[in-house]
């Protein structure tokens, strides 16, 4: 049991302390932005008492997605790079539709 605890302690030290640098800070900031989109969506849905996706959700998605893509490029993680890059296409497309529909409804 002591060996398992020691292995876990070493692992978490290596992951969270030894490798801590500015890139890790960027990764955490990006993940925080990305997480905020769910918080925004949850609050909006609770207030409306139905599923709602507010515009802020897409802006947090874009901000977090761009920063996470930069982080993934730095880490050279092909799965993470592909996931973030493809997700950004969807986020920008949704903002495009919001802007397009907003212009149409105002004319």
From TrEMBL:
GO function terms (MF aspect) = lipid-A-disaccharide synthase activity
Annotated Lipid A biosynthesis N-terminal domain ranges read 26-97
Q: Name one GO biological process term.
A: lipid A biosynthetic process
Q: Which domain of life is it from?
A: Bacteria
Span-the-membrane segments of this chain are: 20-40, 52-74, 80-100
- InterPro entries registered for this protein in UniProt: Lipid_A_biosynth_N, UCP028440_lipidA_biosyn
Keywords in alphabetical order, please: Membrane, Transmembrane, Transmembrane helix
Q: Which Pfam family name is an example for this entry?
A: LAB_N
GO cellular component terms, alphabetically, are: membrane
Keyword Membrane set for record: yes
> What is the protein's name according to its record?
Lipid A biosynthesis N-terminal domain-containing protein
Q: Which organism is it from?
A: Nitrobacter vulgaris
């Amino acid at each position: 049991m002591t060996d398992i605890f020691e292995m876990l302690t070493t692992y978490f030290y290596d992951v969270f302390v030894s490798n801590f640098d500015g890139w890790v800070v960027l990764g955490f900031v990006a993940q925080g932005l990305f997480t905020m989109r769910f918080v925004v969506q949850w609050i909006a849905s609770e207030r409306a008492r139905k599923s709602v996706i507010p515009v802020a959700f897409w802006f947090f998605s874009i901000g977090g997605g761009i920063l996470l893509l930069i982080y993934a490029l730095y880490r050279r993680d092909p799965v993470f790079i592909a996931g973030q890059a493809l997700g950004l296409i969807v986020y920008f497309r949704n903002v495009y539709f919001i802007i397009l529909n907003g212009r149409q409804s105002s004319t």
